[in-house]
Prior knowledge:
By secondary structure, the protein is an alpha+beta fold. It has one domain: Histidine kinase-like ATPase, C-terminal domain (Heat Shock Protein 90, 2-Layer Sandwich). It is 49% helix and 23% strand. The protein contains 6 helices and 5 strands. A 5-stranded antiparallel beta sheet has the order 1-2-3-5-4, sandwiched between helices. It is globular. The chain starts with a helix and ends with a strand.
Amino acid sequence: MDLLTLRDSYLQQQIMLCFNGPISRSLIEEIGNALRNYLNGQPTSPSSAMDVFAVYIEMTQNIRHYARTREYSDKQATATIAVARDDEGHYLVSAGNLVEMADGRRLVEIIEGLAGLDAVALKQAYKQQLRRPRDETLPSGAGLGLLDMARKSSRPLQPVLQPLPSGQGFFSLTATI
């Protein structure tokens, strides 16, 4: 393993936190605590720090929930998470995981639909989703949490779906805070 190349890549992309592996509830919590402690030591507004933390939690819990619903093995349930800064000082919260292609395409379509909404429309969609009765027979996901991330993000959420030779895909999502 070439750690120097990884280090150089992380420095160039301004990655301050990165994780790759099977994700558990306790690991989500531990990484979240490390992220929160890091953000508390940065010249960041408390609301931005809370938004970064909230988006990280939402993304990782979604990945964990999806892997459990699909009954993925530990290898299939691997999550890749990175928190970085861009040149303008925004935080980039990114997470990716293995998905079934149909699920990935559905998510990309929903997220691209949200990209055209302004803050007022996102707030209205969020309130509508809150009032909607939850149907336990429908697959969860791409609802309230996704709308909340879109509201916290200063730019439209950026989804990427990459097909894999297995017939599945790697879905990644980036929120800019």
